[in-house]
Amino acid sequence: MNNGQFWDELNAEIIQCRKCERLVAWREKVAIEKRRMFANQEYWGKPVPGFGDHNARLLIVGLAPGAHGANRTGRMFTGDASGEFLYRALHKVGLANQPNSTGVHDGLQLNRAYISAVCRCAPPDNKPTPQEIRNCIPYLYRELGELNLSVIVTLGRIAFDQIIAYFHMPRETLFRHGAEYAIPNTKIRLMASYHPSRQNTQTGRLTEEMFDQIWERVIEILETGNGE
User: Which of the chain's termini has less CB crowding within 10 Å, N or C?
Assistant: First the structure.
């Protein structure tokens, strides 16, 4: 199977997934009822595949689509405040060709980066259950197996914990913003960041300066190969 065929088949499988009854019901309910400001738009209302450069050396892992963001637009971190915060930061360091993302046809392209998530359906209150995570995580693991990575950035503790589990890293590998680890038996660096949710950015738990430092370090690794 060639690279393009792999991604086409995986993404088609993701979009058709109905493994989690609660999440199927919620994502479709949101797509019908809509938010008033998007009342004239047709919501995606399905699982959201990953997005970006299939030859990426950087993988960015979030939690799940936003109910009125990616669940509306059909593209990761597109159409909500979290995405605005993320793509602005990626654009500053040249990982994205533009600083904003409003829809799948807005011309956004990622450079050396691929964005995925632990769960592909929008969960109520942004809280997938442990079983829903178990149902969905194989999609992320298949992406990990296909990408030739130098860096993984996890946005939030749940994403961090799933990457730790995939690589069988020690349980004492602790999550904290800005933490960086060498993943054993690979050449990959793992970096942890708070999630760019409104809850974090509007309270000051995650500032633009803090977030920018993550991506500046990513660029240093990608351009110099220096993981020390």
Answer: C
